Amino acid sequence: MRFRNTMIREVSSVSRFPRLLMLVSIFMICALSCLAIRDARGQCSELTRVDSAHALPSGIEIQSGPGILRVLALRSDVLRFTMSDTGQLPTEGSWAVLESARLARTPVTPFSNPGAVGFDTGMLKVSVARSTMAITVTDASGHVLMQDASPVHFYKSDAEGDTGFMVWKKMPHDEHYFGLGGKAAPLDHRGWQFTMWNTDHPGWFRGTDPLYKDVPYFMAFRAGKAYGLLLDNTWRSTFDFGKERRNEFSFGAEGGPLRYYFFYGPTPKQVEEEYAWLTGTMPLPPKWSLGYQQSRWSYGTEAEVRSIADHLRKDRIPADVIYMDIDYQVHNRPFTVDQQKFPDFPALVQDLAKKKIHLVMITDLHIAYLPGQNYMPFITGEEGNHFLHNPNGSLFVGDVWPGPAVFPDFTQQSTRQWWGTLYKQFYSYGVGGFWNDMNEPSVFNTPSKTIPLDVVGQIKGPGFATRMATQREIHNIMGIENSRATFDGLLALKPNQRPFVLTRSSFAGGQRYAATWTGDNSSSWSQLRLSTPMLENLGLSGFYMAGDDIGGFAGSPQMDLLTKWMEVGAFNPIDRDHTEKGSNPQEPWVGGPQQEAIRRHYIDTRYRLLPYFYTEVEEASRTGIPVMRPLFLDFPDATADKHPLDDDVPNEFLFGPDLLIAPARYPDEVQNYEVTFPPEPWYDFWTGKEVAQSPAAGPGEDALQTTIVTPALDVLPVFAKGGSVIPMQALVQSTEQAPDGPLELRVYPGPNCHGSLYDDDGVSLSYERGDYLRVAYTCESSPRQITLRISAQQGSYPAWWKKIQVSIFGWHPEQVQAELDGKPIAGAKYDPEQASVEVEIPQNANGETLTLRTE
Ligand code: MIG
């Protein structure tokens, strides 16, 4: 580490020299150190000129001294750069990137001129300067998207002989950066620097880095256009967005392959879709995971769990999940149940199922080190050689909750399969899902609080050449592979049931296996404020099912804070109230009936919005576009100079495409504050009143409108986009309860008015075989007429509703005539209280057209 910093400083001072001196210096550096790359420890090497190049069908390969650069086009908008300072490119294999994407290729047109070599994909042009090796990527019109700022730098990073590298790119003054997983930082990472090294850091705050989940992927956004970059490397790595050098961003790792993917939008949504193409999406989760989730460390007895369930139902707080934290176990030993506290565990699971509540159980990855004591996870794990070893071949043992513990070698396929079998009994009881905690991994008694770097595992399984590997390489993927083993294990046990896994640690691509949360936050207003950008960046990093500990983990919230947090949490993908051991009770009823009523109202709203929410989740499972998202994702052109609108209003976010959530910028604020609207008409979701028109902007002006909000404890401002059809349902107490009443369609007239609805059985994989329901809505409006078209149903899953209650906002006719498929129907009327025209129509799976007219 120290050495690397020295080198960085050296190069940065070089860049300040006058030109001639700089050339001389570069020559000197190359002559003195870079020719001696491999043998002289502590020396650097740089690839600084093109010695030879040859075109490949899908790219180019360039030699530079002993170094190689290979650039491949996987698609015309996705490139892969691989570099090395030895004569050999790194071996294939990736924990993050799907094989289907990794192996994809598209033909390119090579070019070569006196200044540069490269190729053109039709969408992107890559050129490598002959005299410097600087890589430039431009779009089809020659507009520069990304350009090297200095030569790539290789260095010896540690005593093990790992070669680290650093890459510097030019950083335009108006480029902004997002992603990187769950960083405790503002949404826009410009000006920040991060380390990727999964870390259990209880009591983190804004700026604590690194944390539990590191995703070496970011999206760059500049003047309305976006590209993505994924560093496909699991070693400790760093990303710097202009902190170290004002006009450059950089990334590097302490070892492993220099391999990165570049993917071009130009829209931010296309970048998200390409990232999903590369790393996959989270498969459709069980519908119940969209419900309200009640947790604490720990509901410690069967009676307590039952009483929480009863209390939720008695108080009519809709809920789908209760979590069991570590105290259900015998001496914190994973996969055990303390019979004293939980005398009839299967009966508990069944009784909760009758209440339509699922249990999610924690199963930490550390296995108690209990030789000769009949603890099956240890016995079978040791028999199968499934644990990590010290360099001398002994088992690595570290203290965690059970005391001395061993750690599964999750990079072995056989170990992942063994791990999956450990769930057999719990899963057979009907436990809904599992919670993978402590998987950074967290260790109590080592100086680093994790497994020492020299502990050894084996990489063995499809996609990789079998070899030994130390924690240097696999530390960052312990969490993702732990959650993968859990997910795959559950699927193997119940092949037609959607697994639900909640993981704390993960890596790029980890969305394929698990939902996540932001870890051990605290009960403070500033942490509530930080939650939105963190969840947005997790969403952009692939984790569209993410949440935080509502009310805060460490400490106990003031009652108003808990209320405000529950309001916002109702619009987070995962809505889970959780707190630490020893804190005050933190359930929705704590603090009295007035507070409870407010919290209930928001949880109720979440359940009433379930048809919309589930539709968005299903879409995210196909496209990778997160449900909870920053405004610039949908409105990249909102500001006049096309900077991300979120930089001005970091408190606001979108919940799906049609709902704008606008908590106060400082959530404990008592002053009035301004809500800024992206350029569309907007309606107040609570009152139905129009609050913003579709604005007309002149060139160079932005089209933003605002409204002033007076904060009130019981109000979280929510706005519906004009041009949307939002499906809702009658209130239920569990997502598994069939709504009693019609499907509700809220129509908010505006440009390009549309919506959709997706449904299925919520738990099985039958939807993959056509057993789902999909309907599309469109609407057209003029001052005198509104038409709502409901498409024929796609898929074989039957609708739960017989009738559809249509509410049309923003229209106030005195008299209204309705026609369904051209035939007059009765009952349409303007309801001043709801500020909407209301009409009920029968459900028709073949589709129908509703027309409303006024004189
Ligand atoms: O060292 O299982 O982040 O949610 O309640 C603490 C006990 C271990 C950390 C998790 C937290 C959980 C707690 N765990």
Pick out its properties:
52 strands; alpha+beta; 855 residues; nine-stranded parallel sheet; 16 helices; binds ligand MIG; eight-stranded antiparallel sheet; disordered N terminus
Proportion of residues in extended strands: 25-35%
From the N-terminal CA to the C-terminal CA, the straight-line distance is 76 Å
**Count of helical regions:** 16
Total strands: 52
Biggest sheet overview: 9 strands, parallel
Q: How helix-rich are the residues, as a percent range? A: 10-25%
Principal-axis shape equals globular
| Low-pLDDT segments, ≥5 res | 1-41
As a whole number of angstroms, the C-alpha radius of gyration is 28 Å
Secondary structure category = alpha+beta
Q: Name every ligand kind in the structure.
A: ligand MIG
Mean pLDDT: 94
Could you give the order of strands across the largest sheet? 31-30-29-26-22-21-20-33-32
How would you sum up this structure in a few lines?
This protein is α+β, with helices and mostly antiparallel strands and 855 residues long. Helices cover 20% and strands 29% of the residues.
Reconstruct the topology from this structure.
Layout: H1 2-14, H2 19-32, E1 44-46, E2 52-56, E3 59-64, E4 67-75, E5 78-84, H3 99-102, E6 109-112, E7 116-120, E8 124-129, E9 135-139, E10 144-147, E11 153-156, E12 163-170, E13 175-181, E14 193-196, E15 214-222, E16 225-231, E17 237-241, E18 248-253, E19 258-264, H4 268-279, E20 292-294, H5 302-314, E21 321-324, H6 345-354, E22 358-362, E23 367-368, H7 376-383, E24 398-400, E25 403-406, H8 413-421, H9 424-429, E26 433-436, E27 456-459, E28 467-470, H10 471-474, H11 478-493, E29 501-503, E30 515-517, H12 525-540, E31 546-547, E32 549-550, H13 559-569, E33 575-577, H14 593-608, H15 610-623, E34 628-629, H16 631-634, E35 653-655, E36 659-661, E37 673-677, E38 682-684, E39 690-692, E40 705-709, E41 718-721, E42 724-728, E43 743-748, E44 754-759, E45 773-782, E46 785-790, E47 803-809, E48 817-820, E49 823-825, E50 829-831, E51 836-842, E52 848-853
Parallel strand pairs: 20-21, 20-33, 21-22, 22-26, 26-29, 29-30, 30-31, 32-33, 43-47
Antiparallel strand pairs: 1-11, 2-3, 3-4, 4-5, 5-19, 6-7, 7-8, 8-9, 9-10, 11-12, 12-18, 13-15, 14-17, 15-16, 16-19, 17-18, 23-25, 24-25, 27-28, 34-35, 35-36, 36-41, 37-40, 38-39, 38-41, 42-43, 44-45, 45-46, 46-52, 47-51, 48-49, 48-52, 50-51
Helix pairs in contact: 8-11, 13-14
The structure holds ligand MIG.
